[in-house]
Specification:
alpha/beta; GMP Synthetase, Chain A, domain 3; Rossmann fold; 2 domains; eight-stranded mixed beta sheet; three-stranded mixed beta sheet
């Protein structure tokens, strides 16, 4: 029986659409003025603070992606209009009241774009993709954080060459300080325990609690992007993340075999059930290319494109097989950082550029920022 979208589900999903400057979602801010549902078509009426709102495109795109992620939705129509003077005044008063009374639920700023890297199973190179993607985003000029949420199977510290580093807390704020590596800010359980050979024998509740602490008790600072390396599958960490960071958006890593595609689609299904948009697919180990330019599809072909087609999202990149990628991870020398000239590094750069197009950084001046300036001048 096909899933049925309801108004309650729509409003719940819209709580993941944030005004970056005010740190509140469009539902709490009273920006959602109308919701109509008919035969799988959802019409959202949004009231923006001013007609020339510079964040209009981002808010409309975020709204569309959130609602499209709901089961049973076939089409989303976003209709925007300008608020009345009374509505603007009420919004700014509400924003001031929230700023006085409510602390941020996490240390991840609302302006931070959260990119979750997931896979249906292990062995597809998800962590190496996360590490090199984060470095590629940094190379494009963005401030980037990397959270290793694979609590049991952490590998990010070794891949970045920081296995000897340990997380310390600021004596004044008591917040954990990320470790710096290759220009990105890194947090991992591998930076807390005695050694990387130590087994973490934690049950599900402790896994979720560890993730919560990494989001609430780490001083991430101002980030353009936070890349989160998920454990494989659809367990406690994935479900907790959707609750703690509703602005998260996912990319799915798979490999060329179509059997891998059938497994990877499960994590995409989990994301969409949690109202987490899936914005793209990355195919790893896509092909091997000789120095003469000959290509060999060692593991077959078509899985990444099939997955993207089945989810109606783009295939944002295909990463070739390159021994340097694996050896660099073992040595703590990420290929994008140490060999940017290689084809595999250029593929990561192209993926980062494509991702920035799909999930652009938050603008420094938002709609509410402009109206606040106008009101302050009155």
């Amino acid at each position: 029986m096909p899933a049925t979208v309801t108004e309650d589900l729509v409003f719940e999903a819209l709580r993941g659409v944030f005004d970056p400057e005010l740190g509140a979602d469009v539902v709490d801010l009273g920006m959602v003025r109308e919701v109509k549902i008919e035969a799988g078509v959802v019409v959202i009426g949004l009231a923006l603070t001013i007609a020339e709102c510079p964040m209009r495109g981002q808010i409309e795109n975020d709204t569309t992606r959130k609602i499209e992620a709901l089961p049973g939705v076939e089409k989303v129509v976003v209709e925007t209009r300008a608020m009345t003077r009374k509505q603007r005044s009420e919004l700014m008063e509400k924003a001031r009241r929230r700023a006085r009374e409510n602390a941020s639920p996490t240390q991840v700023a609302p302006t931070t774009r959260v990119i979750v890297v997931g896979s249906g199973k292990g062995g597809v190179g998800k962590s190496s993709v996360s590490v090199n993607l984060a470095i590629a985003l940094r190379g494009l000029g963005h401030q980037v954080g990397l959270l290793d949420a694979d609590i049991w199977g952490f590998s990010v510290p070794r891949m970045l060459g920081v296995t000897e580093a340990r997380i310390e807390a600021d004596p004044d704020t008591r917040l954990m300080q990320p470790v710096e590596a290759y220009g990105i800010r890194v947090i991992s359980t591998g930076l807390i325990i005695e050694s990387e050979e130590t087994a973490l024998m934690w049950r599900g509740l402790m896994l979720s609690k560890a993730l919560e602490q990494f989001l609430q008790q780490v001083e991430w600072g101002e980030l353009g992007y936070l890349v989160i390396d998920l454990p494989p599958g659809t367990g406690d960490i994935q479900m907790a993340l959707a609750r703690l960071l509703p602005q998260s958006e996912m990319v799915v890593v798979t490999t060329p075999p179509r059997t891998a595609q059938k497994v990877a689609i499960r994590v995409a299904d989990m994301a969409r059930r949690s109202a987490m948009p899936v914005v793209g697919v990355i195919e790893n180990m896509s092909y091997f290319e000789t120095p003469e330019g000959q290509r060999f599809e060692v593991f077959g072909k078509g899985g990444g494109q099939d997955l993207a087609d089945s989810l109606n999202i783009p295939l944002i990149g295909a990463i070739p097989l390159d021994p340097t990628l694996g050896s660099g991870a073992d040595q703590g020398r990420p290929v994008v950082a140490v060999r940017p000239d290689l084809p595999v590094s250029r593929s990561f750069e192209e993926i980062a550029r494509r991702l920035v197009e799909l999930v652009p950084p938050a603008d420094a001046e938002t709609c509410t920022g402009r109206i606040a300036k106008l009101m302050a001048a009155l």
